[in-house]
Amino acid sequence: MIGRPDGVPLLRAGVRITPRYRELLVKAGISAIYVEDEVSAGIIVEPVVDDHTRAIATRAVSSAYSTAREALSRGKRLAPDAVEALEDVVKRIIDQLQSSGGVALALADLSSSDGYTFQHSIDVTAVGLMVGYRYFATHGWTDYRGERHYNKLEERLSTLGLGLLLHDIGKLAIPLSILNKPGKLNPEEWTIMKSHPRSGVDILDGSQWSPLVKAIVLRHHERWNGSGYPDGKALEEIHAMARIAAVADVYDAITSERIYAPARPAADGVRTIIEGSGALFDPDVVDAFCRVVAPFPAGTPVELSDGRKGIVVSVPEAALDRPVVRIVDGGGAATEISLLLDSSLQINGWDHGLLSPAVAA
Questions:
Q1: CA-closest candidate to residue 135, choices 102, 87, 163, 165
Q2: Pairing mode of beta strands 301-303, 148-149
Q3: Superfamily for 19-290?
Q4: What is the pLDDT of residues 115-126, one digit of tens each?
Q5: Are 90 and 158 in contact (CB under 8 A)?
Q6: CA–CA gap between residue 197 and residue 217 (Å, rounded)
Q7: CA–CA distance, 79 with 67 (Å, rounded to integer)
């Protein structure tokens, strides 16, 4: 489990959790871990980004930020050749997405708030690439002449991934007292925080970077209805890649442990994105998101509408909010129920009508 900014694991597979370990994990800001026992036996949690790739990605992103910080201190800008390792990270993540089928059945690394900046960049990249692949495969991409294309998708994804890894690079220009403030920002602090997209573009050497990478860095906080920042752009004024980044960024922020807010369940993140469709987020991007991000990944504890409690065993790609659930109470033999086959059962706290028939079928 990667919980530190340098990518060094806090726990390794097979470690027995003692009270002392629990105390240390809580102090490190870890709110949840995966435990293998008789209840969870056979439940396979396969994250989109495996531990090896995450460790490589963490070191590469950390190095890129260090290089950018040094350039910033010398009044210089960050050139693409200074962060070539990020291109390898993007390729690794794309390869894993393709081998997994491109559906996030278990996404987030359970990392501490201390490692948020780097882990957030990695997870936003994973979500954004999954959503981007589905979005571009369905809607294609538009060139500067306004013509739509469906080719060169791998090239588009590579550019998208690089922009996603660097989307928060502008936070290097924000004082740590604001970035690490545990409470709500005051109006003056919030104004400074909202400057980070433009600062990010300023850090990049404008003449060398792809304008698409810069669009992601500059526009990932813009919103479909024009309520975002830094410029209040709306609809297609916001590049499609930045619209994808906006959804991935918000989802991962909600489901990650942060200094000022605890991690919330995947279902809360999915619900927030769906509820923002057509207002905060491009509906077509939300549709692509709903087809690849599961609200109840394997290993998630749930309570069914008949009161029984269980753990999600697996998620059918045909209906991401109707998983197979292993009942864990009752004292009898373990029973597994497919909510796809038994539509009379619901997951408490979840509106199964949120995912449209087109998405869930």
A1: 102
A2: unpaired
A3: Hypothetical protein af1432 (1.10.3210.10)
A4: 566 788 999 999
A5: yes
A6: 6
A7: 10
